[in-house]
Write a structure and sequence with these properties.
Layout lengths: L1 H24 L4 H13 L3 H11 L8 H16 L3 E26 L3 E2 L2 E3 L9 E8 L5 H4 L10 E3 L19 H9 L17 H16 L3 E5 L38 E4 L1 H12 L5 E23 L4 E11 L9 H20 L6 E8 L7 H11 E4 L2 E4 L1 H4 L1 E6 L7 E5 L7 H8 L9 E3 L9 H5 L4 E6 L4 H5 L12 H20 L8
Parallel strand pairs: 4-5, 5-6, 6-7, 9-10, 9-13, 13-16, 14-15
Antiparallel strand pairs: 1-2, 1-8, 3-7, 4-8, 8-10, 11-12, 14-16
Length: about 525
């Protein structure tokens, strides 16, 4: 029996030797993590970086002057820390840049108030200051369109039905609970990557909306107001609408496109103010508005990403990469979506340089443009440098064959609580090792599921390991995501510092491990 037990022990050791060996190879360099912590928690630059991206160079609408200023700042800062080969990498034709030079909208009668709102991106302006009446387009059917013919010329049209904000019975700022993290840890892999941005089939509501736009254009309306979701004066402004027949085939033209048709000036208004205007008009009152709206387009040109790296030593042709999207929407300063991600990535590069690392593999940073218009920057980068998917097959470039892993940061300014494994069970034991220094901070969850559509998706779509961190939502969806209040104050300083330390730890772990990161 004793001899049998001895044989059994030997057999078990042989069976689990590869696993144990793999775990030991991926053990965290605790001395290096201590360096990251000391610099990243006591001498952090992450909030300084964030302020430069938001207060000074925000917002960062793709190809706008703000985006270019932020890109120049990021390039200069990375170079000053000793990051190498920092350059702008074109992702191909994008379209026009755009910015606001002046905007105000005020109600002059029946009582005065200043309207909370903002132009939609790539909306044309109006010349001079206009005083005119408002009219509510109360259209529920095509027959209703007739009663507005001959009445819209020179008027400011309230285009939408009112949107009633809901009472805030739940707290806006939340962290992921233990029970939610447990569900995430037990979740199965998603059956799809979540990378597509779908265009829904045309129906009667879409056709009626299109005809409403055509009526406003043909009747010569001065501008269009749209009510926004949100509450307490927060609103959400994205791209201007280019009215397109929903039954027409072919790709839709975005407002930024060089060949976009002329459209009406478009303004998003906070729900409370929009609804008040509608109620005044429904009571038969004459509503007089004063509008000043000056916008400017810049020439159509290629969009670009910001790329930099710490060159590797013996395996420098193999690449570990992390990144975040640099672009934002324009009514706030794009803090949690996604200046926090850029600041974390830039700070992680700084921590790596301050620690004096000499990684085996090259560590590369990517700050992406055009994410808000459909993952344009990261998708083009993957296709140009790493490979592409055609139907059900993937063809990787030589660079793609040597690519190890991509870590993405998006989804707000809260603390990272773990990693979405993107259905890749093979990386679980590796990430488990790298999370050990952060377990006491509540960061230990590994979930097979996928967080959805952001810049890790193009990497995952060609079979390369691409991951997104599980992030405490804090006020991301309630107050900041795409909103006018996505400002510096929405970021949580302690969380950003911790995240940068964790990202530097993951990057050096991937750069120095024996093999490339396991693929699906």
């Amino acid at each position: 029996m004793k001899k049998f037990r001895c044989y059994l022990c030997v057999a078990l050791l042989m069976l689990f030797a590869p696993v144990l060996q793999g775990q030991s190879r991926d053990a965290v360099d605790t001395a290096l993590v201590s360096k990251f912590r000391k610099e990243g928690l006591k001498n952090s630059k992450v909030m300084e970086i964030l302020s430069m991206l938001t207060d000074v160079n925000g917002p960062r609408l793709t190809n706008s002057p703000g985006y270019k200023n932020a890109a120049n700042y990021a390039k200069s800062a990375l170079e000053s820390w000793g990051v190498g080969n920092v350059h702008f990498d074109s992702f191909g034709p994008f379209g026009r840049g755009w910015f606001i030079k002046k905007f105000s909208l005020q109600v002059m009668a029946p009582v005065y108030f200043s309207v909370i709102g903002y132009p939609k991106a790539w909306s044309p302006g109006v010349k001079g200051t206009h005083k005119t009446e408002a009219i509510y387009l109360d259209v529920k059917s095509e027959e209703d369109l007739e009663k507005y013919k001959g009445k819209l010329k020179g008027k400011i049209v309230l285009f939408d039905f009112p949107i009633m904000p809901k009472p805030a019975f739940k707290p806006d700022a939340t962290r992921l609970t233990d029970s939610t993290l447990l569900k995430m840890a037990n979740a199965a892999a998603s059956s799809r990557s979540g990378g597509s941005r779908r265009r829904f089939a045309a129906g009667a509501p879409e056709m009626l909306t299109y005809k409403k736009w055509r009526l406003c254009e043909s009747e010569g309306a001065l501008a269009v107001l749209e009510g926004s979701r949100g509450s307490y004066g927060t609103f959400y402004a994205s791209a201007a609408t280019v009215p397109t027949d929903p039954t027409a085939s072919g790709a839709r033209i975005g407002a930024q496109a060089a060949n976009a048709p002329e459209i009406l000036p478009q303004i998003v208004v906070a729900a409370e103010h929009y609804n008040r205007l509608v109620r005044q008009l429904q009571q038969g009152l004459t509503v007089k508005l004063e509008l000043a709206m000056e916008t400017e387009f810049t020439k159509a040109e290629d969009g670009f990403n910001v790329i930099g790296e710490i060159p590797g030593t013996d395996k420098k042709e193999e690449v570990v990469m992390f990144g975040a999207h640099l672009d934002s929407w324009h009514s706030g300063t794009g803090t949690t979506d996604n200046a926090v991600g850029v600041a974390i990535c830039m700070e992680a590069m700084r921590l790596l340089k301050v620690a004096g690392v000499q990684p085996s593999r090259t560590i590369r940073i990517g700050l992406w443009g055009g994410e808000e218009q459909g993952l344009l920057g990261s998708t083009a980068y993957v296709k140009k440098h790493l490979g592409e998917r055609v139907a059900d097959s993937v063809k990787l470039t030589m660079e793609g064959e040597k690519f190890s892993v991509y870590f993405n940061t998006d989804n707000g300014g809260g603390r990272w609580r773990g990693v979405y494994l993107q259905g890749n069970e093979n990386v679980r034991p590796v990430f488990r090792e790298w999370l050990k220094p952060f377990e006491k901070d509540g960061t230990s969850t590994l979930s097979l599921s996928n967080t959805g559509s952001t810049d890790h998706i193009p990497f995952d779509n060609v079979g390369l390991p691409g991951f997104q961190f599980i992030t405490d939502p804090i006020e991301y969806f309630a107050r900041s995501w795409h909103s006018s209040m996505d400002m510096y104050e929405r970021a949580v300083e302690a969380d950003l510092k911790q995240n940068a330390v964790m990202l530097a730890t993951f990057a050096i772990g991937a750069a120095n491990r024996e093999g490339l990161m396991p693929r699906k």
